[in-house]
From TrEMBL:
Catalyzes the oxidation of glucose 6-phosphate to 6-phosphogluconolactone. InterPro entries: G6P_DH, G6P_DH_AS, G6P_DH_C, G6P_DH_NAD-bd, NAD(P)-bd_dom_sf. Transmembrane segments: none annotated. It comes from Chitinophaga oryzae. This is Glucose-6-phosphate 1-dehydrogenase. It catalyses: D-glucose 6-phosphate + NADP(+) = 6-phospho-D-glucono-1,5-lactone + NADPH + H(+). The gene is zwf.
Amino acid sequence: MKPKKAYPAAITIFGARGDLTRRKLIPALYNLFIENHLPALFEIFCVDFQTVDEAAFKNDLLSGVNEFSRNGKAEPSKWAEFAARISYLQGDFTKKETYVSLKAKVEDFEKSSKQRGNRMFYFAVAPRFIEVIAEALATRKLCSNKTHDRIVVEKPFGTDLATARKLNHFLTKRFSEKQVYRIDHYLGKETVQNIMAFRFANFVFEPLWNKNYIDHIQISVAEQVSVGKRGGYYDASGALRDMIQNHLLQLLCIVAMECPGAYKAEAIRDAKTKVLKSIRPFTTQQVFKNVVRAQYTAGEVDEVQRIAYRQEEQVSPESNTETFVAMKMMIDNPRWEGVPFFLRTGKSMTRQSSVIVVQFKDSPHKIFRDDIVPNRLIISIQPELEISLLFESKVPGLQMKLVPVEMDFTYQEAYTESLPEAYEALLLDVLHGDATLFMRADQVEAAWKVVMPILDAWKKSPSKLLQFYESGTWGPVAGSNLLKPYAKEWYRLPSRETIKKLAVNK
């Protein structure tokens, strides 16, 4: 974590009664507070349209901290101290009176602090309110200081390239680009941040990180959860927009980027954007050859029955919206020429798993009969936070017999301290004015350009080659067939049962 900032902080959360605030934002801010990462002077202004008793509101936030904080239940005295900095403001996002009241509260806080500090405005709201709130903040001059005032915008950032461009244009007319923080919580995950350190601080890997030594790369984010109560949003979005366009393409950028000139926000964001612009565009024919889309049907996950996607709440019974996407991508630059990148994501799958697999080329000259498994680097983002290297080793004995073994680095074994949640790192970066882990306007648009040919092809042929897979499986067979001839199936983390057995044997 970075050192404390001296500036007072006025933190405003729009959508304070929402799930994101209760599950993520307040627990993250509370953890930053008890670990002394927030400035000595701060205030949290929670804005929502519902009329609610402030004491009841704070009790609800406390229950969220007790349930979702990585530090467990809040210590009563610490919570009392933290909750005293929270105030609830009932107000309609579309009414100017809301912002007049908010401005008065923020200015009163700054007067009592005797210093103009940082202002952070977090948009934990539905996309339709982003422009409404941004316009009001600009009009009322609540966010006019380019050095100290910032807005944080959650995904989805647009629904296609045109809407993303429109939103970027709208925001940058009212705020400078350095004031706009487009948040992707995946980039705040500890293991994701560690990929850069792993690549660029360890010279043993960087010379091998190219087409000469790497056969292919898999990036897979499997979700065990179904769509659940998000059917209304999800049926208009789908896995490509919800996961590929942001989370998985950001992971691809970190894996594939060139070493930036310095560990600075703009240098890193430049390097990521270059990757996105180097991805080979899809033709309509290539979409249906190199992209697999599918939808889950009824099945069983962890011995619990699941209904089909088309039976979920607020989902059309004739919906062609994809809940699974697997795709093969090529990056046309000198480093990655000819190396396929395979991306996969899906809902209602066997287990939760976010994994990056770097598969190296086979031994060029085989002198051992059982040298059959190529070297493989596995970066597990969740649920297990670890990096492992698979290599061949001789089995002890009188014969030359090889067996693949793993050399593991796990956070749990290497560090005793608990890891900060993604939102803790990201919120603290916003307060510090560090945009390294946030997406720039051109980066967002470049990502949309990658997926637009796919969306356009699907729009023209809504049901063409739509696959189906049973809930509780790893997706359709076509998803694995996409890997051929590079691999037979997607890499799978060991099952929970296997992990338990290994732990017992240790």
